[in-house]
Structures are given as structure tokens and as C-alpha cells.
Amino acid sequence: MEIKKITVALAGNPNTGKTTIFNGLTGLRHKVGNYPGVTVEKKVGTRKYKNYEFTIYDLPGTYSLTAYSIDEVVTRDFIINEKPDVVVDVLDSGNLERNLYLCMQFQELNVPIVCALNLSDEAEARGVVIDEVKLSKILRIQMVKTVGVKSEGLENLLERIIDTVENSNTQFCPSYGGELETDISEITKALNSDADFVSKYPACWFAIKLLEKDKRAIELIENHAQKEIVKFKTSEKIKRIEKHFGRDSEIVISEQRYGYIRGATAEAITRKPVLEIDMTEKIDAVVLNKVLSLPIFIFIIWAIFQLTFAIGEYPMGWLETIFGWTSELAGSLMADGLLKSLVVDGIIAGVGGVFSFVPLIVLLFLFISILEDTGYMSRIAFIMDKVLHLFGLHGQSFLPMILGFGCSVPAVMASRALKSAKDRIITVLITPFMSCGAKLPVHILLAGAFFAHNAGNIVISIYIIGIMLALISSLIFRKTILKGDSTPFVMELPPYRMPTLRGIFFHVWEKTFQYIKKAGTIILAASVLIWAVTTFPKLNTDTISYDNLKEEFKKRVDINSIKSEMEALKSGKTVISNIEEPEEKKSLSELKEQLIKGEKTIESAVNEKIEELTEARIETLKQEAALEYSIAGRIGKIIEPLVRPIGFDWKIGVSAVTGFAAKEVVVSTLGILYKVGIDETEESEGLRESLRKDEAFNPLVAYVLMLFTLIIAPCFATLAVIKAEIGWKWLGFSILYSTLGAWAVCFVVYQIGSLFV
Amino acid sequence: MNIYDLTDGMSFKILKVKLNGEIGKRLSDMGFIKNAVGHIVRSALFGDPIEINLNGCNLSLRKLEAEGVDVEIVQKETDSLK
User: Fold this and answer.
1) Which of A52, A255, A328, A389 has its CA 20 to 30 A from that of A486?
2) Does 2.30.30.90 match the CATH number of domain B3-74?
3) pLDDT of B7-66, one tens digit each?
4) Are A490 and B61 an interchain contact pair (Cβ–Cβ within 8 Å)?
5) Residues of chain A neighbouring B43 (CB-CB closer than 8 A)
6) Residues in chain B within 8 Å Cβ distance of A66
7) A102 and A136 in contact (C-beta within 8 Å)?
């Protein structure tokens, strides 16, 4: 049998379960991308049914087809340019009037339509009874009742689609009342004088758009052969309408559409009285209660972070172990040399470091999906809007900002929920100031080393400064480069709905996949880059004799303290079970065994330990020298004069720069440069001691370094998603702003601080 | 009298949307048109934004938007019609 292809555009209001229907129709057979040039998600899927192959496009959820919003423009352009065989409008049966408002505009566009009366179970529960046969006749559109979450009605839908496509009659333009009809038909006639033009833009629809003063229509009319006549007629009609109705013609058109819809639905819809207060009202009474809303919200956010980190710890640990094995395996299989170093130190270390984050990302996405799909997300915007609006932000900016405390990558990705480009750009620009999870080790290290008892407060101060910078930056942007009228806030608060497992799964899977794809490629490149600049040019340490240094070191070793260490181990004073590192635990147990059995004497154990320490020391010195010799080190030296005014020497400079790959790298770089070792963590007493002893460091410098890490441009993965969300130009601005900002703030703090210290 | 002037629980009928441009169009598209009915549900802390129920659907509006819609108060119909 011959396979026939049908293209379907799935459209409808937000919150109608459109995506559930899309998933129900296409299953796993779908791909996600972007429409060219805009940050609007493009979703395509396929479905085979009988001898038909359907290609289904999930268009963005929209309330209308104005030129004010990019989602609406993408939707209408798709229909005009791609000319799908049919539009399936997914409607919320409980809110039919407003949902049909969009449908009318599809009819104006002259494209075949099938309506899916979705959420029909909800509507019935609310007492709304729809006679879809009658409604279908009146509106002249095929209607199918569906319950997306139960996959009910989907086959029926496909049948209607086939029927509509195979038997499409010429569409008709809905009639909006005697008064307007004349106006519309006169402009339509004028438009029809250019056959090419109306073959592209349906005349009826275009005429109405002109009367609505649609910006894009006004631009496009310039291409019309008889544009002057059309423009003249249009302004004439608009004047007449505005005089007659006493309102903006845009608004009159809206009213007439609704009038038409009212008439149609009055006959086909009846409402039964329902006595129960529904679940949504009960929940909102608590969750949006003036006094309780904020505490409840804070609790929910707190719970999300706690759960994410608590659960995430396990898979994170496993991934770290797996990458560790891979590293060792590669290390043992490969011959020493550059390639091995590249693979082990560059690729595996770098990629592994960030991939071990993936469990956290997945969990955060999971919780966000649940918040979105249940409907609580819009409540968050409702609660937070007033406060955020004071700083030029939108209620919906709140979630990205909060997520930024965990990781900037999902935070920036979450900014897509903001419909207005300006709101989105500002949100993305300020999100990195929320001190992310990776910056925490740096703060802990420095605060712990230099501020002892006050460490906690110092770290909190950094977080607060971050938030303040974000809010102040937002205000500045709003008043200068991103000026503009406030975008409309009016927002739906949909009924609470139980998310479907499948819906959540797809949601999380898609976001995670995007994250891995974007972050993965960038991080791979960045890891290699950082590896290269810290390795080359290679310092040939073989020629250097470290014997003198070894002797020096051995002389300075505190033999007595090592001896007491060994004695404590043998006698059982040292409690081995307290040690966390499994390897260290193992080797200490072995050593203890050997001491007790007499296989080793205390003296030989001490000597062995000294040799071990010496070798480690020399190794670190070599690393440090190599780093100094490398490009990274040289860059550090070159920028030293630039960072001197903020209190840094070249070593601190290099550490800060390596932070570009990932913030945690700052700690390990400090470890190398401060002669302790590359396995140092922020908790190591050794590293803290070392920093304290160094002349270049003092509490002021430490605090300045914390500020610098906070403000400077975020890691490569975040930069990658920033570029994806707001483009190269704004990415460049973001980097410039944060770098200069970091320098400026640190300069002020350091210089003023120096006067007191 | 506009939507913002009303208190929780009051029912209204819309007379006119006073705002123009994008905001006015958006409100009209969402159903804020002459003769549409609804009631005030609640307001957030500090009185902004407010939640209303319009034609059976819950929406939130900023103070500015609420002030831009002229209404007249109507007697509430029986609770049950949602």
C-alpha cells in the first residue's frame, strides 16, 4: 500500500496538555532543536497509522497570534511558510472560550483544523457539558474529545486528521459581525489585487491583522503591489472603527472574536451546578495564603536542594570512582608521554570532573519538571513578582536565580520560561552572580584558612553580596541598555494537575540530553585547552638535580613527630576506622600489622615515611616549576601587573584563570602552587597552613579572591548555555561585564581594605 | 472603578480595558472584554499581584494591569457555577 505523508502542526494555549498529546502520538520518536535564529524550541516527531505517516510539529503554546511575542510569531510563520496539511488545536475543554480564541485565528489563516477537546475529564468533573457534534457544525471544525494523560481519543484524533486532510473543503473566514465584515471585505478586495501576495498571506487573515495594527503585517505590506491603496483603506477603516466603538481597533477585533465564539458556544455548552470546592482552590488557599505562602515556598526550595544533594551524592560518588578507574586503566595501558598525559590529565580528568555533576543536574531537572507539570511554578511567579519587579525582574526570574545557587547551567536553561527577550537576557546575565555549588570549595578553603571562627559568616556574606550584585545589575540594565516597557505580566494559574510519569521522564531526559550535548562538547574542548596551557612548554625536569633539595628537606623533617606517629599506630592509639580515605585506611592497617608482627621496626617505618614525604615534596616542586614554565604560568606572570592592584601575585592570578574551566580547579591549582600537592581539597589543613604562611596571602587578599571567584565569568559549561540562550553578542557582554565588574569590586575592596589592615 | 479597587470575593462585569499597546492587546486576548464576568480571588503580600477568576479561569495580574480595567460590581451568582 502506498504510504501517504501528512504534516501536522500541534498548537494551542499553554497548560492544555498539548505536550502530553504530542508524547502520546509520537512516543520516543521525536527530536528537539531550535527554530533557526531564535531561542524557541522546535520539536518534531513521527507516527505511523494505517497507511499514513504523520510528521508532527509541536508548536509553542500561545494565547494568540500577535506580533508581540516571539512564540506567536514563530507559530504563525510556521503555518504561513511551512504550510502544514492540518493544524491540530489542543483545547482545554473547561476553558473553551479563551481556547477557541486562538482557533479562530487559525481559521482566519485558511488552514485545515481539527480541534482536540482535551482535559475533557476535568471539564466533566467541573460540570461542563460539551456537545461536540453541535459545536463542530457551528464552527465548521472537526472536534474530538481527548484525555491526553490517559491516551484516550488519540486514534479518533488521527482518524479526524485523515478525514480533514482527504476531504478538505475551502475554508471560510469566520464572520465577526456586520460592522466589521464590510471593513474586512473591502481591505481583502484591495489585497487580492496582488495575486502573489495573497498566495503567500491569506487575504482574510491579513486584512484582520492590518486592522489590528499588527507590526509585522505593517512591515510586510510594503511588499504589496498596491500598497498605497491598501494602506489608505486600512487607515480609513481603523479611524472609522475607533470612532464608532470608542476604543482601539486592536481591542475591538478581540471583542468581536469573542462575540462570535460566545454565540457559537452558547448553543453547544451547558454547565451543571457543582457543589464541591475543587482541589485547586483548597491547595491555593494554603499555598497562596498571604502569611504562609513565603515560608511554604522557602521550605519547598530548601527541601529540593537537600534532596538533590543527599540523593545525588551516591551516583556522584560512583561516577567519580568510575572515572578514577578509567584514569588508572588508561594510565597503565598507555606509554608515558604526551598522549597519555593528554588523555589522563586532560580529557579524563576534565570531562570526568564535570560529568560527575550530571546526577545533580538530573535531580534538579526532575524537581523543576515536577514543579512545572503540577502547576506550582506559576504560583512561585505570583508570590515573588512584586519583590522582583522592584528590581526590574519578572516573577518567573526567581526560579533561575534560585537554581543558580546549585549550578548555573540548569539555571540559565530554566530562563527559557521567560517569554520576553529582555526579561530573559537580564535574568541570564545576573544568574551567574548566585554563588554556585562549584564556587563553594573555594570559599570554604579561604574562609577556613583565614577567618577561623567567623568562616561561616564570611561565606554567607559572599552569598549576600552575590545576590545584591545581581539585583543592582538588574536595575542598571533595566535603566540603560535593556530599557523598555514592562512586558505584560498577566498569567494563567492553571488547576493543579498530577504529572504523568511519561511526561516527567521525557521532560528530564530532553533537558539532560541537551545539557550533556552542550556542556559535553565545550568541556571536552576546554579540558584539552586548560591541559595544554598548563603543560606546555614542557620543562625538562630530568636534567635538574633535586639531591640538594632532598637533603634540605630531610634535614627539616620533624623526625620525632613521625616517630610518635608510628608508635601511636603500633600501640593502637591511632583509630584507623576514623580515616575516610579507603586507600589510606588500607595502607595504615597493613603498616600496623607489619609493626606489630615485627616485620618492620619503628625506625625503618620512620625512614620509609620520610622517603615518601620527600618524594612527594619533590614531585610537587616539579609540578610547580612546570606550571610556572607553562603558558598558563607565563600568562599569570604577564597579567601580574594587572592583578597587583587587587592584591594578587602571579600564582593567585593563575589559579583564578584556571577557574574558567570549572571553579573547583581553582582549589587544585592553589594546591599545586602552594607547594602542598595536587590532591588537596578545601578541607586540608596542609593547604590552609600553607596559604596562611605565604607572604602573598592575608585575610584581605583571601576575601578579595573569594569576591573575584564569585563575580568573574562562570565556567565554560555555563558560558556555553548562555550563548545558546541569548547569543554571542550578549555572551560577550556578560564576560566583559563580569570581568570588569570583578576587577572593579576587588580593586575597591582591596585598596580600601589595605588602609585598615 | 477598576479591578484593583475591588476586594476579595467581589464579583464584577468588565466595562472597558483602558490600556493600549501590547498590554491592552494581551488583556483583550486573554478574555478581558466588555461584559466578561469574574470575581476577585485573593491578592499577594503587599497587594500585588492579584488573582482573579475570569470566565472560570484563574489569572494573576499586576496592580498596573488591574488598574487598567474598568468594571462594575455585580451581585454574585450562586457559588456553584464555576
Assistant:
1) A255
2) yes
3) 999 999 999 898 888 899 999 999 999 899 999 999 988 888 999 999 888 999 999 999
4) yes
5) 290
6) 22, 25-26, 29
7) no
